[in-house]
């Protein structure tokens, strides 16, 4: 097998998607290894999980930097220090500068809890319910400067059920997130999914 790709994960909190990636990468035939976890929140629970797995962790608090540019430069320095080849955003709740997203274009993906382009931003489950959506789900997309706007790599759809609340919907979508994100990273790291211009090119196995 060719060398596994070096992947860093950016988190801000619980890190359940990060954990799904770490677990998937334990398989010997998985095309990526998780080599570092970086948080902008010192108390992000996911940092403990990663450290317990023997994975390098780092904290760069956005509060310690005078500008978004300075903060993103600090993130970039950590990632390059780890020799990261790809970056996964997993509940990373900061808007990134065009310079940062440009540096990682085609090599950075995000998971978002909606069927993009619907419901960019926050409170997606509540908004899907209020809009009367028949289906909801999650999307893995390449990261570009626009918030939740990059080309879609893959999606998972679930039906909205009668009696669903934002909490019940969130719980079912999260199960899908944990299934979808490792699959998407495998596609990217193996080269079976690539960003070419504004398009995602999929190459069959
Ligand atoms: C996940 O549901 C993720 O899709 C969402 O935050 C949650 C993080 O949970 N991300 C966004 O809303 C980004 N726009 P986790 O920390 O347990 O992975």
Please tell me about this protein's structure.
- The structure is a single chain.
- The protein is an alpha/beta fold.
- The chain has helices at about 15-25, 45-50, 70-80, 100-105, 125-130, 165-190; strands at about 5-10, 30-40, 55-60, 85-90, 110, 135-140, 150-160, 195, 200.
- The chain has one domain (about 5-195): Rossmann fold (3-Layer(aba) Sandwich), CATH 3.40.50.170.
- The protein has six helices and nine strands, in the order E-H-E-H-E-H-E-H-E-H-E-E-H-E-E.
- Strands 3-2-1-4-5-6-7 form a seven-stranded mixed β-sheet, sandwiched between helices. A two-stranded antiparallel ribbon has the order 8-9.
- The two termini are about 15 Å apart.
- Glycinamide ribonucleotide binds near residues 11, 15 and 148.
């Amino acid at each position: 097998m060719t060398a596994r790709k070096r992947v860093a994960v950016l988190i801000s909190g619980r890190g359940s998607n990060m954990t799904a990636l770490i677990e998937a990468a334990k398989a010997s035939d998985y095309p990526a290894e998780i080599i570092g976890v970086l948080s902008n929140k010192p108390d992000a629970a996911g940092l403990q999980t990663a450290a317990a797995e023997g994975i390098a962790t780092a904290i760069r608090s956005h509060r310690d930097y005078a500008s978004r540019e300075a903060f993103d430069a600090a993130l970039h320095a950590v990632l390059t220090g780890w020799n990261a080849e790809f970056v996964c955003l997993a509940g990373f709740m900061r808007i990134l500068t065009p310079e940062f997203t440009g540096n990682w274009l085609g090599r950075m993906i995000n998971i978002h809890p909606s069927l993009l382009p619907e419901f960019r931003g926050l409170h997606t489950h509540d908004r899907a319910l209020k809009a009367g959506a028949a289906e909801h789900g999650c999307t893995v997309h390449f990261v570009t400067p626009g918030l939740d706007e990059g080309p879609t790599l893959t999606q998972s759809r679930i039906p909205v059920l009668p009696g669903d609340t934002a909490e019940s919907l969130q719980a079912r979508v999260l199960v899908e997130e944990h299934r979808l994100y490792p699959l998407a990273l495998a596609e990217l790291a193996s080269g079976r999914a690539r960003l070419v211009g504004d398009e995602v090119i999929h190459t069959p196995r």
